[in-house]
C-alpha cells in the first residue's frame, strides 16, 4: 500500500434517516457489525472515555484465512467530545498493522446535521498528521488489494444500511 501526505480528509454523505438513527449506527455494535469492516464498537461516551473496535468472528476468520493475524482490538482511542446525536470526536489508532499502529493516534470528528425532508448530512473529518500509511488506507488506496474502500466505502454502506435495511453483502 502506498502512503499519502494528505493531513486532513473530509467525507460527507446525505442520509434519509434521523440524527438519532445515524448516531446509533456509528456508536452501537449491533449496527457497526453490519456495515463497513464489520467491527464491534465500544464507546464510553464521555470525555476521556475509551473507544475500541473489536473484530467480529467473521472478520477474524477472513483475516486469518488470508494469512493475517487479527488482534483482539482492531482500533483504539479516546472519546474527546460526545454531543449525541450531533457530534462525536475521538482519537483513532489502527492496531491491525504495525506500521499504522506506530504512526500513533489521529483524530476523527463525526458531525450530524439535520436537514429538510428527513435527510441529514453526516460529515467525517479525519486529521491524519504524521500518519501517511493510515491516510492512504482510509482514503481507499488498498481497495485494489482487497482492503476495502476506506471511509468513502464505509459511509456509503452506512447510508445504504440505514435507508434500505441491507448492507452491500445482503
Automatic annotation (TrEMBL):
Residues 16-162 form the Activator of Hsp90 ATPase homologue 1/2-like C-terminal domain. SUPFAM superfamilies: Bet v1-like. InterPro entries: ASHA1/2-like_C, START-like_dom_sf. Belongs to the AHA1 family. This is Uncharacterized protein YndB with AHSA1/START domain. It comes from Actinopolymorpha pittospori.
